[in-house]
Design goal:
6 strands, 31% helix, six-stranded mixed sheet, 3 helices, 173 residues, alpha+beta
Length: 173
């Protein structure tokens, strides 16, 4: 599975670079649903719905239904660590963390989606604000980014690879 993740990451980089390098600024397609490397609006909408459902569940701090958004053989990476499958991540990381939280709020969330056949490449940037049940703990505010690969199997889109990272705010230069 690790090789698949590396290949998916490489494919994302190549696809992003080749799209920018090969497409002239004035390129225009009359039927984007049938252009090479383009997907139907319906596929993009379905991918966005999966990504939004995950984000919304995190904000509600109710991840009880999120396993259905990830394929069983998915891989999760966070802040330089390999978390394993989503089921493992949920049981050993995400679920226990939420037990201590009073609130989780995304801000300035932006999502870019590119669908190519049965594969979707997603990048997200955001800030998030966390408060704790223990009022003695100071709130946390971070800048974050996530990249993910979603796969369509049958008629259903789900996360296959998900990687997120965050850092403290840095003063403006």
């Amino acid at each position: 599975m690790m090789l698949r993740s590396v290949l998916a990451g490489l494919a994302f980089a190549v696809l992003a670079n080749s799209a920018h390098a090969q497409a002239p600024a004035h390129a225009h397609t009359h039927d984007p649903a049938h252009a090479p490397g383009q997907a139907s609006t319906a596929d993009e909408a379905q991918v966005r719905a999966v990504v939004t459902a995950y984000k919304d569940a995190i904000e509600r701090m109710d991840v009880s239904q999120t396993a259905a958004l990830f394929w069983a053989d998915s891989e999760i990476f966070e802040n330089g660590g390999v978390e394993g499958s989503f089921a493992y991540y949920l049981e050993h990381h995400l679920g226990p963390e939420f037990a201590d939280l009073a609130g989780f709020d995304f801000r300035n969330h932006e999502t870019k989606v590119e669908v190519d056949g049965d594969t979707a490449f997603v990048s997200e940037t955001y800030t998030y604000h966390i408060t704790f049940k223990d009022s003695a703990r100071a709130p946390i505010e971070r800048r974050g980014a996530a990249t993910s690969v979603l796969r369509k199997r049958g008629d259903e889109w789900r996360f296959d690879v998900y990687h997120s990272s965050a850092r403290p705010f840095r003063p403006a230069a």
